[in-house]
Amino acid sequence: MTGLPPVVANDQQARRDAEHLKLLAIFHFILAALGLLGIAFLAFHFAFMRAIFMNPEMWKNEKSGPPPEIFFKLIMWGYAFGVVVMLTGGVLNLLSGLFIRKRHHRMFSIIIGGLNCLHVPFGTLLGVFTILILSRDSVRKIYEVSGGSSSGTG
User: Fold this and answer.
1) Of 137, 139, 11, which Cα lies nearest the Cα of 1?
2) Mean pLDDT computed over 141-154
3) 3-state helix, strand, coil in the chain (%, to 5)
4) What is the average pLDDT score of the chain?
5) Counting beta carbons within 10 angstroms of the beta carbon of residue 59, is it exposed (0 to 12), middle (13 to 18) or buried (19 or more)?
6) Which residue, 83, 90, 88, is CA-closest to 29?
7) pLDDT, tens digit (0-9, with 9 covering 90-100), for 50-68
8) Measured between alpha carbons, how far apart are the two ends of the chain, in Å?
């Protein structure tokens, strides 16, 4: 880009930023969908484990340890926690994708990108790219021009 006039260079950067923001929004939607898929997997796994733990034939010779019904009630809290985490992550990624498409609430999307970094490996990749792209000065200006809140307060 060294030989290009500033107007052409800025136009190319604007097109690149628009494409990157479009891809970021799409991948936030995909991660939200994967959260819903994870909830479906948990529901299937729950049904499978319930069938095992509530089958009296399977436990009739077992004399040690807590009754399977009590143990299963404890496991249910783990399922509930997993559903809450996946549902929350899915909703937050859906909102972030919508905000990126509309060029609003840049800081919200950066925070969600940081949280996504905890979801190895796909969330980590998406989180790092979200933070890198939304931290660019050229992207910050796009958010300011579009009337979206760059600081996340509006």
Assistant:
1) 11
2) 72
3) 80, 0, 20
4) 90
5) middle
6) 90
7) 998 888 787 777 777 777 7
8) 35
